[in-house]
Each structure stands twice: as C-alpha cells, then as structure tokens.
C-alpha cells in the first residue's frame, strides 16, 4: 500500500493535471493537507519537498508553495487530455525518485575518489557482486567475472552487433517483430539481419533449426518474455528447445530480458537458466523498472567472450558512469530494488488484466489482439484493408498516440496491418477511453473501404 507521503504526491499531481491548481497558484496549506490525510505536518512537508525537487512546485519564504509554469502535464495524462499508448516511459509518480536521489547522494560520498578518474570498464566490483546476488534469485547462476555493466541495454546491442563471434556466421537472426532499438543497432553496425516470424504462439522451431544449421548465423536475438511489441512470452517447452538447438549447432543466443521483474510465474526461467552449453548471452536493462535516465544495464557472457566484449566496450565509453553504478549498487543492497520490483509487478499485472478485460468488451471477437499475462504491451491485428498508418494518423488527430508494428519489422516483413498499445503510463480511465476511440476509428475505416 502507498505511504501517506506517496498518496499526497499523487493527489497533488492529479489536482494539477485536472486543472484545480494552475501555474503560479498557491498549493493548499500544510495544515490543511495534514488534516485531509490524517497525518503529521512533517509528512506533508516531505511530500511538498519531493515535488519541489522534481521542479513541479517552488517554495516562497513565509508564503507557501506554488506551482511551476509549464509543469501542468509532466507526469500523467488526464482522461480528457492526450492518451499516449506509444510511449514506453513509466509514469513519473510511479518511479522511485526519492530513493534513487538518496542512493545518488550516498554514491557521491562512497565513490568520491573515483570521480576524479576512470573505473573498471567491466563495472565496479561491488555492483557486479550485487548483480550476481540479484540474478541468482532468478535462477541465473553467473559469477561476477562474467557480468559486464553496460550503459543501458542499447550499448550491449551496439557492441554485440559489431564484435566478431566464433564461427563463420556473419548474420543475426531476429524475431519478426522484434525490438526496434536492436534493429537500429544492427543497421548502424552494418550487420546483416535475417528474420523469423513470431506470433502469440511462438516461432516455427523447424524453421529455427534450419537457420541454425545453415552456418550463416552469428547469433539469435530474442526477447523470450513480454516481447515488444506483442507482449507475449515463450512457453517453457519452446525455450528448452531453442536452447537445445543453439547447443547442437553452436549458435549463440542474445536474450533480452528487459521486463524480467514483471514475471509472476516463478517457474518461467530465462533461457540462460536452461543453458548447459553456455551459448546464451543475457542482457538486462533497469530502465523500465527504476529510472530510464539512470542508463544502467548488465550483460552476462560466456567466459570465452568476456574479454572481447570488454575491449569493445572500453573503446566505446572507457567506463559506465560511476554515480549511476554506485546508486544501483546501493539501491539493490538496501533491498529497495526488491521491494520496488514487487510493487511494479503487482501494479502492471493488475493493469494488464484490466486492459485485457477492456479489450474483450470493446474489441470483442471482431478485432484480434494479443493477451499477455503481464507486461505492458498489447498488439491489435487490424481488419483487412484497414492500414495501420492511416489509423495512426486519424488517432493522432484525436489526441491518441499508438505505434505502427512495422517499426519493429524488417522492410520485407512490413504489412502495415498492426498497431501496438503500451499501457505503461496509462491508468484505467485512459485505457478504456482510448480503446473505445480506437475501436470506433477502426470501424469507420472499415465502412469507408467496403
């Protein structure tokens, strides 16, 4: 349950976004808010100070707190305002600003000497040890020497698409659709890319084996759970078979497990946990669960690839930012990360369950959609002749942003027939209101082409 401090922060944000408090206007007095929430004045002061640090409000000596100009819609959307199903950024009031700020201050004190030089390009030892403990709890038994701290998962993708791998394969095999950021990294690196179709039932394992046996594949990039954009996950049987085929043909797998913290099935192990042949490279981002601006991620590699990966990383940035590393170390060590992960897992599970209920009620059987158990993505398969780009433009005119799934596809696989809906920053009223408008626009486009 949210603390009184969090409740006050959330309440004030709603008041601002609903227009009850306008830029330059004074916020309710500390005494009035304390009475409203049955808490001490100190709790209200603490909440107001949190909003002040986020530049939402400012203090005037002997007068009170006032709203900053330009901050009216900085956190979430209102039901009557724009509805953003395209953004993958979590709600501002749902991110652990205060805790991370505390950890950053502690990191400055703890690592003040290191601020005047460069640290280990592999990552500071204390953080890698905390990561080892964190991954062990997820059935990933790696040693600190196999873990490399990266400046976000995107840096890992950039390095892996550039560095050579054992064997003669030069191409990367990717699911279709896949994460567009990886496609961008491969394109810039000049790395050849081959696609294999994936739907909400998984992939054709026979086709996968044919690719692995061709000798062309450098590695297979996969997002086994909560795939962006489908939102769906592989079954345990499929994951076991993928790992078996990789071991059989000596093909490496790059596993992007960016939303591992949202998994509620304790038996849903990552590919890395099933890998006896040490063919899996595991990538974990912390952007979606903590703060995107922290830019922290981790790569776990087979021992024979660690030094090569570090050499490429060292050439890119020498070392990841020490303050971000120190803050993440302290955030994990204190238990804050574990508690926050539990909170967001419960939050997004309930949000997705609600979204799927609304899909059934609004879209019915006439519009196909994926049904993830958790995560933050749903994909709509549009009816024949309804083009995603046209729908996207019409929705934009109504203040609703969605993503064309073609953004996640290689050019030869683009069909302009699906849209992705991300619910990460939306609340229940916005989800239902947005889905209703989307359904109405789809039906209007259907009638136009008949």
Automatic annotation (TrEMBL):
Domain of life where this protein originates: Bacteria
CDD domains, per database record: AAT_like, WHTH_GntR
A molecular function GO annotation: transaminase activity
Keyword Signal applies: no
Domain HTH gntR-type: start-end pairs: 2-70
UniProt cofactor(s): pyridoxal 5'-phosphate
Keywords for the protein's UniProt record, in alphabetical order: Aminotransferase, DNA-binding, Pyridoxal phosphate, Transcription, Transcription regulation, Transferase
Gene3D superfamilies (UniProt xref): Type I PLP-dependent aspartate aminotransferase-like (Major domain) (3.40.640.10), Winged helix-like DNA-binding domain superfamily/Winged helix DNA-binding domain (1.10.10.10)
InterPro entries named among the record's database cross-references: Aminotransferase_I/II_large, HTH_trans_reg/aminotransferase, PyrdxlP-dep_Trfase, PyrdxlP-dep_Trfase_major, Tscrpt_reg_HTH_GntR, WH-like_DNA-bd_sf, WH_DNA-bd_sf
The keyword ATP-binding belongs to this UniProt entry's keyword annotation: no
PROSITE patterns hit by this protein: HTH_GNTR (PS50949)
PANTHER family linked to this entry: HTH-TYPE TRANSCRIPTIONAL REGULATORY PROTEIN GABR, TRANSCRIPTIONAL REGULATORY PROTEIN
Family: In the C-terminal section; belongs to the class-I pyridoxal-phosphate-dependent aminotransferase family.
Name this polypeptide is given: GntR family transcriptional regulator
Organism, as annotated: Paenibacillus glucanolyticus
Lineage, broadest ranks: Bacteria, Bacillati, Bacillota, Bacilli, Bacillales
